[in-house]
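User: I'm putting together notes for a lab meeting next week and I want to include a structural view of one of the chains we've been expressing. I don't have a solved structure, so I'd like a prediction I can at least talk through. The sequence is below, exactly as it appears in our construct file.
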Amino acid sequence: MESIDTLIIGGGVTGLAAAVRLAADGRSVCIVERHPKPGMETSTHNSGVIHAGLYYPAGTLKAKLCVEGAERLYAFCATHGVPHARCGKVVVAATDEEVSGLESLLARGTANGAPDLRIVDQAFVHEREPHVRARAALWSPNSGKVEAEALVRTLLRVAESHGAIFLRGTKIVGVSGENGKFIVTTERETVEARTIVNAAGLFADDVSALCGGEAFKIYPVRGEYAELKPARRNWVNALVYPLPHPSGHGLGVHLSKTTGGAVTLGPTIRYQSDKDDYENDRLPLEEFVEPARHLLPNLNLEDLTYGGSGIRAKLHPPEESFADFMIRHDTRQPGLIQASGIDSPGLTSCLAIAERIGALASEALD
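Assistant: Thanks for the context. Below is the predicted structure for the 366-residue chain, given as structure tokens.
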């Protein structure tokens, strides 16, 4: 039976970034992932946006780790050749009635430490995004984009270069405790670990229960995307967002030009019970036309094609509007480190989350 310092359950960006941090510190680390490849769930089913920290309540982990994580992510991508761009973002007030919302967003982002935010006029937006309708906008120059799949591959490569072991296509079937350690049984092997990091994303509540940890519920929330057809990709140059969704559940259907040149519209918001259902009962393309015309008034149904979909792992039910990241020692199992409820801005924050996990692991191991 192999004995290690830390077993990480989940091979998305959170688990992989934690593996990089812990293995670089000289810890023996094993990552267990149920899929044949890393990052096959939320990590690569999203907009690929590097957020600046505009949207989250001041003092929350989401606010702090987003601002810190953005700078760490830009530096990591530059060092390791991950395709990315600090392209900037406009959050658009398309009508006079929406302009006051920009001031509120500016105040929140400034309180969070998002750098160099300012309100800009219609001419500023037109110069950068001539096809976008705007009365005014909030300009966020530190927002950007990253190729999520390349980031996942690179995080795994760096983790393995520090000695981390990646077990792909591996499901955990049992966890027990013995002499202050965890005995983790998979379909093929048994591992003894002094600590476990629960980075299981959509299945973090199930993993917590399996490890004898505290009870909580992950709510799967599907987001669907449309795309501009290739002939219309020149209508968007970078990142164009509306004001955040009034429900508090999302940032609204926004326009994102990816590192590969595609332009996505989305994501939508739908709470559902199935954690694996990405395609059943997809929204018709017609549902994207009106939200997109709010930003691109010349858009027609014929300009759109279907995009992908993703599922966020939220810690709050639909009747509530916010839950923070859960990154701490479990209240029932001190050797279990929870990294759960990592929805947006989880991609942006992954390296900052990893720093926090590293500190928690050191408390448990030293």
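A couple of points you could mention at the meeting. The chain is about 30% helix and 30% strand. The domain at 2-44+149-218+322-365 is CATH 3.50.50.60 (FAD/NAD(P)-binding domain).

User: Perfect, that's what I needed.
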